[in-house]
Amino acid sequence: MLFDFTTLPTKDRYKLITATVVPRPIAWVVTQDAAGVLNAAPFSFFNAVSSDPPILALSIGGATGAELNKDTLANIQATGQFTLCLVPEDALDAMNVTAINLPPEVDELAEAGLDTLPSSKVAPPRIARSPVAFECETHQLIPLGGNTLVLGRILALHVRDDCVLDAARHHVDTPRLGLVGRMHGGGWYLRTTDRVEVPRIPLPDWLARKQL
Fold this sequence. Notes:
Cofactor: FMN
Organism: Roseomonas haemaphysalidis
Keywords: Flavoprotein, FMN
Number of strands: 14
Largest sheet: 7 strands, antiparallel
Family: Belongs to the flavoredoxin family.
Protein name: Flavin reductase family protein
Shape: globular
């Protein structure tokens, strides 16, 4: 079946993209406005795009949730800072509460019963229940029509102590993080407990195989 994206309306393109580009990591973004009012919202149009400089990419907007997203974007535009937390399975219900389209003056973190911890380099705090949190400053904002692509430069990374295997070698116990990913539809998510290891093949090994 061919879907011609040059003729489809935005809502249908959105449905097809989110149904097929899976699983997607979830950016649980904490921002604050100039008065210090906190905002938290989850986004799944998100990923790491560079290590030098260290950049995370977050797309804000889309066919749904425009009202939900506008506070996050407005705060980033105003302050240039945010924390980006990853979502563990035991915080999935709380994350879902922060996705409710609450009025701007309402603190989503308080509504979800979430505690925060202070950041070290930016003003917005991080979510205490998240095992991974990135402190970011705005690197670039790129208009994409109905979306804005936020490129955030990582200033600091917090990993929960029990998820660090060897701090000196920067080895993280990734399975222990217990993170979830976004799937299709309005409410489907994925655990990261079903894994398969496929080791990289060195070029000499590959060439040797071809000669057999």
